[in-house]
Structures are given as structure tokens and as C-alpha cells.
Fold:
Amino acid sequence: MEQERAVLEVKDLTVAYRIGERWLEAIRDINLSIFCGQIYGLVGESGSGKTTLAMSILNYLGQNGRILKGSIVFDGEEISQYPKEKMRSFWGSKIALVPQNPLSSLNPTLTVGEQVQEVLRLHLKMPEAAARKRVVELFEQVRLAEPQRVARSYPHQISGGMQQRVMIAMALAASPRLLLLDEPTTSLDVTTQASILDLIKELIQGQDMAVLYVTHNLGVVVELCHRVAVLYAGELVEDAPLEEIFRQPLHPYTFGLLKSVPKLGQNKKEQVLSSIPGQIPALAQRGSGCIFQSRCPIALDICAERPPLESIDAKRSSRCFRWQELLRGEIPLEKLFEAEGEALQASIPVQQKSEAAALDAQGIIVEFESHASLFESLARRSSRKVKAVKDVSIRIEAGDTLGLVGESGSGKTSLARAISGLNEPEAGSIRIYGLSAAPKLSKRNRDVLRRLQMVFQNPEEALNPFMTVGESLRRQLFVLQGIRGEEAQRLAEEMVKAVQLPLDVLNRRPNQLSGGEKQRIAIARAFITNPDVVIADEPVSSLDVSVQATILNLINRLQGNFNNGLLFISHNLAIVGYLADQIAVIYLGALMQLCRAVDLFKPPYHPYTEALLSAVPSVELGKKAQTIRLEGELPSPTERIEGCPFHSRCPRKIGEICERQAPPWRVDESTQKRIYCHYTLEELTELQSPILDVGL
Amino acid sequence: MVKYLLRRFGFLILTLLITSMVIFAATQLLPGDVARVILGREAGEAALQALREELGLNDPVPVQYGRWLVNFVRGDWGKSYSTKSEIRPLVIGRLRNSLMLAVVILVISVPVAIFLGVVAGLNENKWIDNVVSIASLAVVGLPEFVTGLVLIQIFAFRLRWFPANSSIRPTTSFLEALPMLILPALTATLVLLAYIARLTRAGVIEELKQQYVRTADLKGLPYRVVIFKHVLRNALIPTITVIAISMGWLISGLIVIENVFNYPGLGRLMVFAIDRRDLPLLQAVTMVAVLGFALSNLLADILYAILDPRIRLG
Ligand code: SF4
Ligand code: SF4
Structure:
């Protein structure tokens, strides 16, 4: 590692955006040095200014952004004042970017091969034929199967993971000195993310290059980075080597952030998730004091002043007045971020226990017709049927949570929408406490509607933008239960309190609320009629980590009070593992594994569960015992798959039997763990070692 | 791709069949007794009856339609009631004239319009964009006969560069006709120009916001490559398809311009046929016009499929 001179040195960088008439500072006084061979993690939630910082380093701010002060020195050259035309000799050849959304970052009307070739021809002066050959080599390096075919493909013809590999090949084509990765795996599934991270790690190794990895995902940072800088509301609050920041954070925000991430193996029965109260201050509301003051549990009077970024030793620094106390372990931060909240007043009647399950869905099949075009459907050509859900049965007891985990394309959302009646299932029965629900939403009566409520990923789906929160809640009560007037008002107020919002939100409209607040209202709306079953489809996946934890705690508490059945759907294993009592793992529309949440992390696993667990980047250092990676791509939904749905990617595939014969359900009688595989449970236990070496 | 085109082609045939029915039904229902139109007010009932018999006007409507359609496809378009001459050579001749005019219009307007649109789009809200936008708005508001007459005043009467009357003959060759085509083409250009330029501008502005433009920039590509190779390739797709679609209108829709310049195009022939209640002629002209529209739509679809790979595979 050559350590003498930094490849990139950012000094006192302040960048502002013009909003209306004013210039508002998006990042303030940023200092950062990245050396050759170093992978620097830049962590921040939305609104932290991390993308602004990355774009400033590229000197690509756009019309309404401006560097107000500070310098950016790249390889000894001050570039922050260079005009765009001059920057073109840096871009692509010396500084390269891998962006977040590979599909929209590729030109839809050029083949991906051509788009990579451009870089080679421009910067390495390669002739056409040589460039074409080199592209295939690069594609091999980034592990693209059939590199020649991919090179001839257009972006929309290849999967998201493949697109991102192309972007990486493009960024590395001219061997830049500085590589910026801006949330490169955020739009991908965990299993794809895991192999992309492996790839990045491998490609960067031994290269004469400095890397800045921008992300909100702490787990990814642990997997990849040497150093971490934490950004909060536009300020760098802490900067330290990876091990130290995770072992002993010296800024309360870092601490809170680390604590709010649900970890694999955590369960609601053992602990409440920590969370950071409040939210990131908006650009216009950033005062002159410590930027974290409004949310800091250990703030003092002096915090009305702005703390400097102080060096603790040669390697780390913190922007908190109280870092010394933190360093000496004098402040019990552990207790300070305990989740707020007490039990909800039980004036809303609690569910009666009954013999039948809260939700019993049997043999659900969901099909979609896939038309290639409008014309095809007009001409009534034989349409291809896509089975999104293939004969899935689930059962949820009152007060229980079933966590449904799956990646995109697994059919988890189709199943949720079928149960809630939003998409009519092809076959299957749905019963709520024995009461049968019609497959079509329009055929369901008021009672069934009241008994089954849904929370969506995007709260806007449930909230009418033209109604105030109070109107929405009261309307829900009136439509489903005929409650109106004072009684409705009282229940609405109670519910708003239960989701820990001030009463005045009742008079506000959704567009005056933050994302987290909107989701709380959507949750309040779902629970207000005291439903028997709530289906929550990725309710926290669009929220920041520190907000996520609060919402999860909230859902957990509400469900505890109302004692309803909850179907909780997520792609995030740690979250599902935390919140659920029972877990169902779904792949290509079929269940692979059913078990108690406490048994999820212990072998035997279904081979797919094993791969999923192994793919989750852990925020705890050194917790991963083994890595299993999935090869290949998710089969296209129109493809018919014989035998085990997972056979095309299964790392433990036995042989032909998996392709020909549908596997049996293997059941462990004592734990009721059920695995859909040709291997017996004993064989799997034999083969597998625990993914986490936590004492479970 | 082949499948897509075959489907499109099938769609075209279907459209034509349906419109032919509509045309036939509409022309049959046009008020007026054809026989009387042909023979004049003084003709006796017997003569009228004989003519109706001869023209097949007494047969049931479906039979008349079938006969007409078969003849039309075979190329036998019948005789005009009013001029008593064969319809086909007449319509084909007029079609040739209209096509010549359309080509000249496109050659003049497309490069200019795209150029203006691109310049305006790349300089959104700067002075040059404002000038182009305001000018094109002003022009698009003027009726064709006004612009036509102004152009005649300037170029024909003052400068004497081009003739004011464009009544060419069927035997006039393209080169001979060219000077006479310029003024009507300019008039149509002014209408089309504003439209295409504004569409192009919108396309460029939209594409400039896309993330792949950032990728192209951050590859270090020179500005002109970013614009010509990346942005315009996508931004011009709608423009090009709209130009193809406008072919239909250029062939048969320039009635006002043809009248102002006395140009013997399809549009005027249609007006003539309506005027004289010349049903066979009207049917033929309309069919040709519809064919023009349908073909230009097909052309647009084909171009779209060639230009946008996302459609090509659909
Ligand atoms: S300076 Fe004060 S408010 Fe800011 S993080 Fe430290 S203790 Fe909290
Ligand atoms: S049945 Fe075969 S392919 Fe399917 S999960 Fe088991 S081992 Fe893998």
C-alpha cells in the first residue's frame, strides 16, 4: 500500500444548492483523504448529503449546485474550479463512477458492448476490433456468463445484476485512479448484492486505485471497507478505521445508527430495537449548533455551539464535544437509545381467542397473463400465462406474525395482493377465523374488509392526498364500522397517540408529513378498525434505518395490543427474523421452507435459505462463518420449471432427480420445521454448518 | 422483428377494409341523386332509370360494395361521373403531384426544424431557446392562406423569384416543376416547422435529464459525442415517427395551400369530387388518402421499431 500522498484530498468542502432564491448548504466543511489501495466507506441516511459529496468530487454538480468553499485535490491537482470541458480529461480515465441505478444509467438504444467500447477507444486509443475483444475480456472479468452475447445485448435485455456488472466493467475499463461507487447494490436483491460485493472486492484488490464507497447500508461497509466516514445532515460526524468505529463509536449518531440496524438472529421476544428519535433536519432548518443536537440524548448546553471535527488520534476523529467521555466509556449510550414508547391504552377491545386460525389461506394460485404488446391482447393471441404463486398455503394464529421472505420475483407481493383481494387468485380459499373471504375485493362485504387490512411499502397507496389525516381515519371507521361523530374522533385521536404522533397531525394532509410519519398514519389506518389480520408488504423498506426501527417497534407493539395475526413481507431476513414468530421462505412462487423464527438461523436450512442467509451483509464484525453464492440468474417467469423450482441455481443440487421430480416436504416433528428438498433433514444437517456463529 | 412487422401489416389491411366500408357507406348516403346529377335537371324519368340500371345503383348496397371493392383492388376505379374519363390515371397523376410537393416540404422543413429544436433544447430557457420558441409559436398561429399570400407577395410579386401560380401539368417533370413547388412548400413548412421543432426541443430536454447522459459525460466523452451519439439517438425517436405520420397529411391534407397556389394535388381533387357529387371519384380519392395515412403510420411503426430496441423485441 503506497501511503505517501492521498489520491483524493477533500478540504473544508461546502456545497450549496439554490432552492428558490436562497442558497442552502447541503454539505458543510467536509474533510476526507483517500489513499491508494484504500476502500473508504461513506455512510449516511437519505438527506445526509452523501450523493452531493460524491458528485462534488466528480465536479458534476449541475446547474443549481455550487461549491461555496474548500478544495478538492486529486493526485496533487486542485480540480474543484475546473470547468466541465476540462473535467472530461479526468472523467472515465482517472475518476470513474458506478451509479445506483444501472438500467437508467445505460443508454437504452446502444448495445452494452458498444457503451463499454467507447471508454476503451477514447482513453486507451484502442482501434475498434481490439476494443471489441477487450470488452469481452472485461465482461469475463466481471463474471458475466456468455460475455459475447451480453456485449451484443441492449440494457433492457439483461438482468439488474448483469447491468451492474457492465457498469463496473465500464468504470474499470480505463483503470482509473479513483473509483466512486454510489450505492451500487441498493437496487439489487441480497443474493445478487452479495456476489457483486465479492466481485468488487476481488477486482479492487491489488489495483493501483483508491475507492470511495457511498452507501446507507452498514452491513455492506463491514464487508468491504477499510475506513468509514459517517455523514449526518451534511456534516462528517465521525471518521475512523472500520474496526474501531464498530467497536467503539465516538459519536452518539454513529452509535444510534449501529444500534438501529436489526441484526440477523435478533428477535422481538428478546429485545426491542433501538432507534433514534426524531428525524434528520431539513436543509432550511439546519442551525448553527451541533447538527445532531435535536436528536441527541446526551446533548448539553454547549451543544448550541457547533463542535469541531476533532482528531482523537492519528487515525480517527469525531465531531462531538463529549467524545472523551465516550472514549472513556463514561456515558451509558446503551440505555439512551432504548426505544421510546409504552403500551397502548387498551380501550379498543382485544380480540377473542378462537379455535380457527386468524388467517388460513389454502392452495393459493396466482396467474398473470403476459402480453407482449397491446396489439397482442387486442388480437387475442394466445397469451402466455405466468404463474406468480404456485399453490401456496399459509396459516397465521391470532397474535402471531408470519414473516414471508423472498427476493424480487418470488411472488411474495402477488401472494399478499391475492389474500387481500387486490388481485383475484386463480384458485385457493381464504378464511379469517373460519369466515370465508371472496377472492374478489368487490365481492367482499364490509365485515371481511374490516377484518383484513393492508399496509403497503408506499404509504401513499393507502392515503388519500386530498383528505386530512383525521378525515382519512374517520372515514375508515365510518365506511367499515359505521362509527362516526365524537366516537370516531376519539378513536382517531387514540390511534394517532398510539403511533406516537402529536394530535395536530389529524389536521394535516399527507404531503405535509415525512415518509416515516406517513407510514405511521398508514399503519394507524390499518389498525384502527381492529382487524383480525394485517398484511404488511415491505412497510419499512423505503425508510431510513433509524426510522425503520421505530416503525418496526410500533408494528410489534400494536400487534401485541390488538392480538391480531400479521403477515409481514420483506426481502430483509434480519427484519423478518426479528419481527416474526413463524417464517416462510418463498422462491419463484413456491414455498421452500417453513419454520419458527428461532429455528431459522440453525441448520438444517433449505439450500435457498442457506444462500439467502449467507448473502446478508452482517453489521457485526467477523460474524460470518461461511459464504455461499448463487450462480446464474433467476429463471424468467414464463419458463416452465420441472422438479424443484430452485434446481437451476441450487449450490447443493443432488443431480437429475432435482430437475425431474418435485421434492417432498421434509418435516421435523419436534420443531415443525418444514423443508422442501430431496435431501432429508439429517442429510442437510450433516452438510451444512451454521451461517452465524452466534450462540443460538 | 419480422413477426412485429407482419402483425403491423395485418393491422393495416384490417384498417383499410373497415375504412373502405365507411367510405362506401358515407358516399352512398351523400344526399343527391347521382343519375340526376349526371343527366341534369331536364332529364326524363326513363333516362334516369336506365342510367341507374347501368351504374348498378339499383342493386342492394352490399352487392354494390363488393363489386366496388373488387374492382378497386383490381385497379378498375371506374369512370368519373362528371368528367366521364377514367378515374385511375387522374388520381394517380394527382397523387404524383402531391408526393412531389410532400417531398419538397420534408426536404426543406425537417433539417431546419430538427436543427432549431435541438439548439433550443440544448439551451433551454436561454435567449436562443426563447427566440425559437416565440417565433415558432407566432408562425404556428397564422392560417396557411395568410402565410401563403404573404409569401406570394414577397417572392413572386416583389422579388420575382418564383411564380405565384403553381398549376403544373401532368406532363411537367419534377425538375421543371420544382420552382413552382417552392412557395407552396415553404407555406406548409412554416406550419410543420414549428410543430417538429417544438417536439424535438421537448425530446431533447427530456433526454438530457436522463441518467445515461450523466454516464456518458462521466466517461469523459467530448460534448458533441454525448449529444450526437447518446442524447439525439433517443431524443429524435418521437420526432422521426411523427414526421413519418405527417406524410399522410402532407399527401392529402393540403387543401388550402393547393387552392391558394392553384396546385393540382389530391386535396383539390377531393374538393372537386365533393362539389360535383362525383361518387366514384370521391371514393377513389378518399381510398388513396386513407391508404396514404395507413402507410405512413406503418412507416412510423417500422421506424420506431428500428430506432428503439426495446420495441423491436416486444
Ligand atoms: S456535540 Fe452535543 S449534541 Fe452534538 S452529538 Fe455531541 S453531545 Fe450530542
Ligand atoms: S431438491 Fe435438489 S435442487 Fe431443490 S433445493 Fe433440494 S438439493 Fe437443491
